[in-house]
Amino acid sequence: MSSPGVTPDRRPGLTQERRPGLDRALRGLSCWWMIFPLILLTPVTALALGFPSVRERFGAVFGVAALISAVLPPAAGFALALAGGRRRARRRFAVMAGVGSVPVVFFLVFGVLLAECPSGHRC
Questions:
Q1: How is residue 27 annotated by DSSP?
Q2: What is the pLDDT of residues 72-99, one digit of tens each?
Q3: Most buried residue, 19, 41, 74, 87, by most Cβ within 10 Å?
Q4: What percent of the residues of the chain are helix, what percent strand, and what percent coil, each to the nearest 5?
Q5: Global pTM?
Q6: What are 30-78's pLDDT values in tens digits?
Q7: Cα separation of 2 and 4, whole Å?
Q8: Are 97 and 75 in contact (CB under 8 A)?
Q9: Whether 39 contacts 66, CB under 8 Å
Q10: Residue 96: partners with Cβ closer than 8 Å, 6 or more residues away
Q11: What is the pLDDT of residue 9?
Q12: CA-CA distance, 117 to 107, in Å (whole number)?
């Protein structure tokens, strides 16, 4: 009978080989996701600071960029963590997807489904 220290444990999830490229990619996707609130609030901040032209010109671009930044990094990070066998990273990206879906749902509900009709038009 062999002791546990003699042979390596082959159960998945207990040992991880170091992959610096994968770690950097997961860290980069996490950082990208963390900046989406800043991207989302940039036009509002510009309006509050007295730059209404920034919101008029670039508001939609910043909104779309924020929505992409809320959805794409968690999905890509979850896929990379799943392929790399990173259990903690999978949990982190699943939570990020749940939190990032809130602005997307608000955008869809209030921006698309419940959008106000122009005066004189029936919706």
A1: H
A2: 999 999 999 999 999 999 999 999 999 9
A3: 74
A4: 70, 0, 30
A5: 0.70
A6: 999 999 889 888 888 888 888 888 888 888 888 889 889 989 999 999 9
A7: 7
A8: yes
A9: yes
A10: 30, 33, 73, 74, 77
A11: 41
A12: 16
